[in-house]
Amino acid sequence: MSRFHQRLRKDLEDPEVAADFYQATAEIALMQALEEARKSFHLTEKELAARMGTQREAITRLFNAEHANPTLSTITSLLSALGLHAEITLRPAFPDEAPIEAKFVPAAPSS
User: Fold this and answer.
1) Concatenated DSSP letters of the chain
2) Residues 67, 82: Cα–Cα separation, whole Å
3) Over the stretch 56-102, which tens digit does the pLDDT of each residue have?
């Protein structure tokens, strides 16, 4: 195990540090998945903004801000504008598991 991971494991023993870490990890994973979807659909930030009825700058901030922290309403708008469906499954967490795992699953090519 690397020094980084040893230090991280030690730091995560503090419940407050762990909560902040897992929240940040979840936000980053979700925004990365949505950005990956946008790019896979070959949509510019301007085109996505137009679909959402907002300005391109708002989309740029959303995907590039250090702490974007989008609201559920914004996430719902993003999903609609991208033509995506999200599934949320609630289950007991495993130790050291982030509260949210997000990934973009492209549709299989139609025959």
Assistant:
1) --HHHHHHHHHTTSHHHHHHHHHHHHHHHHHHHHHHHHHHTT--HHHHHHHHTS-HHHHHHHHH-TT----HHHHHHHHHHHT--------PPPTT--S------PPPPP-
2) 22
3) 999 999 988 877 778 889 999 999 999 999 888 888 888 777 777 88
Burial of 27 (0-12, 13-18, 19+ CB in 10 A): middle
Whole-angstrom distance, CA of residue 103 vs CA of residue 86: 10
Nearest to 51 by CA among 19, 27, 80: 80
pTM, full prediction: 0.73
